[in-house]
Amino acid sequence: MATEIKVPTLGESVSEATVARWLKPVGASFNADEPLVELETDKVTLEVNAPVAGTLAEIVAPEGANVGVAALLGIITEGAVATAAAAAPAPAKAAAPAAAPAPAPAAKAGVEPLPAARKMIEEKGLDASQIAGTGKDGRVTKGDVIDTLEKPQAPKAAAPAAAPAAAPAPKVVWAPGTQGERPRAAQEERVRMTRLRQRIAERLKEAQNTAAMLTTFNEVDMSAAMALRNEYKDYFEKRHKVRLGFMSFFVRAAIQALKEIPAVNAEIDGTDLVYKNYYDIGVAVGTPQGLVVPIVRDADKMSFAQIEGKIGELGKKGRDGKLSMDELTGGTFTISNGGVYGSLMSTPIINPPQSAILGMHKTMDRAVVINGKVEVRPMMYLALSYDHRIIDGKEAVTFLVRIKECIEDPRRLLLDV
To answer: So which residues are the catalytic ones?
Structure first.
């Protein structure tokens, strides 16, 4: 009995996905609910699980294919593991005799080369089974393909067999230290943009094209916040089972400033201004797939511990590619912390349709004047990028000053002043 694997509902406003990779090869058996294939949309990466136990009999949509909702991805044969397994290796048997005379290590059977390596293999007309894979789980890397192409033995051995009477001109193989330049093709890697990366590019360009974007800066003395954190971090972690970071301070400070300057929490819809009387704060997270901005819903109703816990949960899901569509949509204001990567100063780009984004940066000891005396304090630059169509310069500066005041005197966050 055959069962179809189809593209599930992808979420609101998402109608198409790209097949990122198959987790099972044709002929592999699996249990029900075991992940079979990864799909990538312009917002999230999701796994499609096996609806029933069985064997993957056919892959209809290969890696890189664009598929719509309910499109056919593959076919499962239930209770026919032996039949499907026997049929699947048929194409591979043709390669087996060629591999027999050469006992040199080759790629593991059923292990696909990495995308960049696979593209180069196809372009050069190579046999992937004859290339030794040095990547994880024996996968062939782009470097493995380059090494194979640069080996002079392979072309020399193949020439007599193909045309023993011919006397072709010797092929020049580039090697370090030799005359001439290395072929440019060997130094380039062309990889198709993921849907997420394409969407990020579109949204960033959209923000630059549509918003009248400006950035205002300030600096904040982190002494008080750091002292408070150092005093209570151990007790905080024991009681709440979550670490106390600085992001919760900035989320609470931003909410307090948003309440005072509501334009920063608003957006433009045609000729209307939409003021949001709720505070869904986006926290930018760097992932292997690109930057994503999961949302902390109703952050104004959450404690420091709840904010820290939610940010930790969303960050882990983001790095694992497990964020849902709902967790990525509907934010009213965004905070980005470039300081975790060592950024001292930057101008963050607005996350449309939001009207502003706060950029945090690296905390560094700097000499500052305090009450007429030069002291060394841990200082952080803050940047607020905002849409000047809806937020005036005075409002932007006031907003950033309120953040500064709350961080430099955290008691304000408790007293709401």
So the answer is: 388, 392
